[in-house]
Specification:
Elements: H1 11-21, E1 35-37, E2 42-53, E3 56-65, E4 79-83, E5 86-87, E6 95-99, E7 106-114, H2 121-137, E8 143-149, E9 156-163, H3 166-174, H4 185-197, E10 212-221, H5 232-241, E11 248-252, H6 258-270, E12 274-277, H7 285-297, E13 300-305, E14 314-321, E15 331-338, H8 346-358
Parallel strand pairs: 7-8, 7-10, 10-11, 11-12
Antiparallel strand pairs: 1-2, 2-3, 3-13, 4-5, 4-14, 6-13, 8-9, 14-15
Length: 384
């Protein structure tokens, strides 16, 4: 098995972890490449589907425009839901959409920090400040890990595993010094990918395992790579082969050569992340860091009610985005969900009851949009 393949958490462990997210069983989805709209300049990617509260299904999705910015303020009028080929009628209020920002699910980030001597003092200090700003801007439940490129045999050292407490992370940052003789950038990014693919992490400040829905990598470096064990080509292949995408956001500093800049640009572009070049005045760092946090926190959770009887099988779902509303063009991404009967744990029943009030059941014959020309539908009236 590819060692970077996402690890699927066993249901027993997730019962404990899922109390945080009001889930008991975890279903990861594998979906095709993002649906991108060439002329319209936007797209979407489903990166997780959760059936633990069935018949209520959570679909986690990422949206982006031509500048890799999230589509903001989406509502049900922007969204199309299609289950087993039949489209839900949005007027029936059988689904809702929320940004991650307003929910309890956590995100994880791995900060990859360049400690090479080639990072001049001003660049290094700016890098540490940027990392501190990123930590300060996260939500309380979000976790950050710190990985430093250094002189160790592997080319990197783990300063902190996934941790929620800003003070703990700040102490790790304070110990950093630009003492490395070289920068094995690709080895460090590969290690960050391995962390992202690992089991759900919990910081030393917590006795619980938090329910996390996405992981991102943020690289702060000059872009230079000195003889990594993994080549750029091999690393790009690993990034492309990830079944669940891990976006890489890269910040490079003014002293970087054009070739080194392109290294970081390639990492960001190939992973659906974004590249930022820090100017000599360092005046864009705060804005860049805040933008990365905004992108991460504006992934969306779409919740819909399924009417497929419990059969333990997988069923197709397509989610579409029309942006702006009324454009008449909707772009879809596809995935699957499981029709399962969740355990009757009190927290699960409580969560189901809460969603049931928000999405009350209707008669199934009222659920779908009806296209008179679709096979199996009633014939259209004569003359129309």
């Amino acid at each position: 098995m590819n060692r970077l393949s996402p690890i699927r958490t066993r249901p027993r462990r997730l019962v404990r972890a899922g109390l945080f997210a009001l889930v008991a069983l975890l279903t990861l989805s594998v979906s095709p490449p993002p649906a991108a709209a060439g002329g319209q300049g936007y797209g979407l990617k489903i990166f997780r589907v959760e059936s633990a509260l069935y018949p209520f299904v959570h679909v986690y999705l990422r949206t982006f425009d031509q500048d890799m910015q999230p589509l903001v303020n989406l509502n049900v009028l922007n969204i199309g839901v299609m289950v087993e080929g039949r489209a839900y009628d949005p007027r029936k209020k059988q689904y809702m959409i929320q940004p991650i920002l307003n929910r309890e699910e956590a995100t994880r980030s791995v900060l990859v920090l360049d400690t090479a001597k080639a990072m001049k003092s001003a660049d290094f200090e700016a890098m540490v400040r940027a990392a501190a700003r990123f930590i300060d801007a996260k939500r309380p439940q979000d976790q950050v890990a710190l990985l430093a490129l250094d002189n160790s045999a592997e080319g990197y050292s783990l300063l902190s595993n996934f941790e929620r407490e800003p003070a703990t992370l700040g102490r790790r940052l304070a110990d950093l010094q630009p003492r490395a003789d070289m920068s094995r950038l690709y080895d460090g990014v590969a290690a960050a990918m391995q962390m992202a693919a690992g089991a759900v992490g919990g910081g030393s400040s917590s006795s619980d395992v938090d329910y996390t829905v996405s992981t991102s990598i943020v690289v702060l470096a000059n872009g230079r790579d000195d003889d990594s064990a993994i080549s750029r080509s091999d690393l790009m292949t690993r990034i492309s082969n990830l079944k669940i995408p891990v976006p890489i956001y890269t910040l490079s500093f003014a002293g970087s050569e054009d070739r080194d800049q392109r290294n970081l640009q390639a990492l960001a572009k190939n992973s659906f992340g974004k590249h930022y070049r820090i100017t000599a005045g360092y005046d864009t760092i705060t804005r860049n860091i805040e933008e990365i946090q905004t992108i991460m926190q504006n992934d969306y959770v779409l919740t819909f009610r399924s009417y497929i009887p419990v059969d333990g099988g997988r069923h197709n779902v397509k989610i579409g985005v029309e942006y702006p509303t009324g454009s008449g063009i909707m772009y879809y991404d596809s995935s699957t969900f499981e029709a399962i009967e969740p355990p009757t744990f009190p927290r699960v029943l409580e969560a189901q009851q809460k969603i049931d009030k928000a999405i009350p059941a209707i008669r199934e014959d009222e659920l779908h949009l009806k296209n008179p020309y679709a096979p199996g539908a009633a014939a259209p009236p004569a003359g129309k």
